[in-house]
Amino acid sequence: MGTRLDLNGKSAVVTGGSRGIGRAVAITLADAGARVTIADRSDALRNDGLSTSDVIRSRGGHAESVLLDISSSPEVDATMNDIAGRHGIDILVNNAGTIVSGTVAETSDESWRAIFSVNVDGTFYCTRAAIRHMLNRGAGGKIVNIASVSGLRANQGFAAYCAAKGALINFSRQVGIDYGAQGINVNAVAPGFVETEMTAMYDASIRHALEAQTPNGKWATPQQIADTVLFLSSGLSDHLCGEVIAVDGGWLVGTPVQVG
Ligand SMILES: NC(=O)c1ccc[n+]([C@@H]2O[C@H](COP(=O)([O-])OP(=O)(O)OC[C@H]3O[C@@H](n4cnc5c(N)ncnc54)[C@H](O)[C@@H]3O)[C@@H](O)[C@H]2O)c1
């Protein structure tokens, strides 16, 4: 490719890469030349019966899938050490996440813990394993956390999810400044509303309302999120440290108002 978006020779791990945003990220990084490991607790197949790694291999790329529940610290350490030993880890995309709706009064201990154990604890375990490996190797690296606009602004009726994504954003900033001097760039992407299985729960009236609140009037495609992840995984982002990039059609910037 010959550009600084070229990821040939790099090894990337994408958590939750079986479907949705993670699938688009994994395919995009592989198209840029990276060898990609998809680490997901389930190996979801597309309608055509292909897994994400099947799709990457069919495009001439290098990929493998491993089953991993990121909320288990010992499982994460074993899997990340195995990947690091075989391919090294240059890029980690912490994408796996889960959502639950509910105000504080409606949220049980179990659902609060479930949201934090994946979105926050799981991201911490994967990040720690990758950072230890990157420090040992001394060659720097890239870590991209998939947060959410819900971590930057309250989102009515999603108490646990907003709290978890807010924690993830400040975690990104903290790890970003702790390891910037070692050449490890840690940054976050905050997607707005993206067409995936996660948002399939929204009915037409909610979709229209969210579109109306969004300055460009559209939801994102998973590919649009993956394009920003590619930038943050590449040499083009070498001077970004603890940054959060919203990919939301302007939703955080302002609300369109119809006058007259
Ligand atoms: N879709 C949106 O509108 C949107 C908006 C903002 C942020 N996000 C974030 O983007 C990320 C991806 O979302 P998506 O819409 O593609 O979701 P999705 O539900 O379609 O996919 C999530 C993937 O993560 C995997 N996963 C969940 N828990 C896991 C665990 N414990 N261990 C390993 N893998 C696990 C699932 O198996 C699945 O493949 C999430 O972190 C989500 O919070 C999504």
UniProtKB/TrEMBL annotation:
Pfam families: adh_short_C2
CDD domains for this protein: SDR_c
Transport is among the record's keywords: no
Gene Ontology MF: a single term: oxidoreductase activity, acting on the CH-OH group of donors, NAD or NADP as acceptor
Residue ranges occupied by any Ketoreductase domain in the UniProt entry: 10-192
InterPro entries cross-referenced by the UniProt entry: KR_dom (IPR057326), NAD(P)-bd_dom_sf (IPR036291), Sc_DH/Rdtase_CS (IPR020904), SDR_fam (IPR002347)
Keywords noted in UniProt: Oxidoreductase, Plasmid
Gene Ontology biological process terms from the UniProt entry: fatty acid elongation
PANTHER family the record matches: 3-OXOACYL-[ACYL-CARRIER-PROTEIN] REDUCTASE, CHLOROPLASTIC, SHORT-CHAIN DEHYDROGENASES/REDUCTASES FAMILY MEMBER
Family: Belongs to the short-chain dehydrogenases/reductases (SDR) family.
UniProt protein name: 3-oxoacyl-[acyl-carrier protein] reductase
Protein source organism: Rhodococcus opacus (Nocardia opaca)
Gene: fabG8
